[in-house]
Design goal:
This protein has helices at residues 8-11, 19-22, 51-61, 74-84, 101-108, 126-134, 155-164, 218-227, 235-245, 248-270, 293-302, 327-340, and strands at residues 68-71, 92-94, 113-115, 139-143, 168-172, 194-199, 212-215, 275-278, 285-290, 308-309, 319-323. β2, α5 (101-108) and β3 form a beta-alpha-beta unit. It folds into 2 domains: 3-246, Aspartate Aminotransferase, domain 2 (3-Layer(aba) Sandwich), CATH 3.40.640; 249-340, Alpha-Beta Complex (Aspartate Aminotransferase, domain 1). It contains 12 helices and 11 strands. It is globular and about 70 Å long. It is an alpha/beta fold and 341 residues long. The strands form 2 sheets. The chain has a 7-stranded mixed sheet, sandwiched between helices. Strands 8-9-11-10 form a 4-stranded antiparallel sheet, covered by helices on one side. The structure holds pyridoxal-5'-phosphate. Residues 73-75, 99, 143, 147, 172, 174, 199, 201, 207, 212 line the site of pyridoxal-5'-phosphate.
């Protein structure tokens, strides 16, 4: 990877060294970190490098531990990437409509945004992406399957993005387990300027523990690790995730059920009068076009059913984003829509 993509002051930054960095052996007396010695299972600081958890994830994803960053949700990785990469001049590129946090991370770090909007059919506009790159942008966020459109991009599309965009391409695969397309992790060995984001919040059902992953060239990962807060992943999170990783079958079963339920919900939605379009989705949600999204949103809310109104997003006029729930929840939604539409 071209080191110039990383902000110069981060390349030369010496990170904070924790008490646990300075001694990694098996000591029996810990008087180095000003902790409370009375044991409660959480009285000690957690491993700042999350070694055990990373070793498990390395096995699961078949990737070396030095190419893994773990954060407080993938939102932390998104924010760190904006802060690590040198996008002060050319800004970051997004392909709207897409996940809103890319914009928030840019704005809150004083970084400008270049939009290479999706085409009307939600496919990628390679010419707009290439223009953004030529304009000096060095960081692009690509979401696949895309939130909120549900569109999933083929590996060939991602290869074309990498050819059109000369900076670092972040492929956010928060929903990849629900998709039909393979993960862009497959492309990592052939491209050092790509970052892939995964999360435990969706398919793994652990949104509450806040744990996200970034996979990339070790130079990018080490820059992210330099900048992160020392103990960014709590002891409880690390332990809980290790425990749950022992049994991936649960996640696989739930994903399979949710995919079946997604297909059923799409059929039911399509059969409703007043539903103008259901967009194909590779995520655990569907984007649905109705004639008056705001009114439908409010009417559902008054029946204590909350969906996401995306009608203000460019290209998503009239659209609601609906998460795939349990059979009962989906049934309640369809019953309510029958009354409302
Ligand atoms: C595309 C996308 N990326 C990242 C996230 C954030 O995930 P996490 O819970 O890991 O911070 C979300 C959450 O909705 C998302 O939709």
């Amino acid at each position: 990877m071209d080191s110039d993509f990383i902000r110069p002051y981060i390349r030369s930054l010496t990170p904070y060294s924790t008490a646990r960095d300075e001694f990694a052996g098996a000591a029996s007396v810990f008087l180095d970190a000003n902790e409370n010695p009375y044991p409660t299972t959480v009285n000690r600081y957690p491993d700042p490098h999350q070694r055990l958890l990373k070793a498990r994830i390395a096995e699961l994803k078949e990737i070396a531990a030095e190419r893994i960053f773990l954060g407080n949700g993938s939102d932390e990785a998104i924010d760190l990437l904006v802060r690590v990469m040198d996008c002060t001049v050319g800004g970051i590129t997004i392909t709207s409509p897409t996940y809103g946090m890319y914009k928030v991370a840019a704005v809150s770090n004083g970084v400008s945004i270049v939009d290479a909007p999706l085409r009307e059919d939600f496919s990628l506009d390679m010419e707009a992406i290439s223009r953004a790159s030529k304009g000096g942008s060095r960081l692009l966020f690509l979401c696949s399957p895309n939130n909120p459109t549900g569109m999933q991009y083929e590996l060939e599309d991602i290869r074309r993005v990498l050819a059109a965009f000369e900076g670092v391409v972040v492929v956010d695969e928060a929903y990849v387990e629900f998709a039909d397309t393979p993960s862009a992790l497959e492309l990592l060995p052939e491209c050092s300027r790509m970052v892939v984001l995964h999360t435990f919040s969706k398919a793994w059902g652990m949104a509450g523990i806040r744990l996200g992953m970034a996979f990339a060239d070790s130079e990018i990962i080490s820059a992210m690790n330099k900048l992160k807060l020392p103990y960014n992943v709590s002891e409880l999170t690390q332990r809980y995730a290790i425990e749950r990783l022992r049994k991936p079958e649960r996640m696989e079963r739930e994903v399979s059920e949710l995919r079946d339920r997604r297909a059923l919900l799409v059929r039911e939605l399509e059969s409703l009068e007043g539903v103008m379009r259901v967009f194909p989705s590779g995520g655990n949600f569907v984007l649905v076009k109705v004639s008056d999204a705001r009114t439908v949103f409010r009417a559902l809310q008054s029946r204590r059913i909350v969906v996401r109104d995306r009608s203000m997003e460019r290209g998503c006029e009239g659209c609601l984003r609906i998460t795939i729930g349990t059979s009962e929840e989906n049934g309640a939604l369809i019953d309510a829509l029958r009354e409302v539409l």
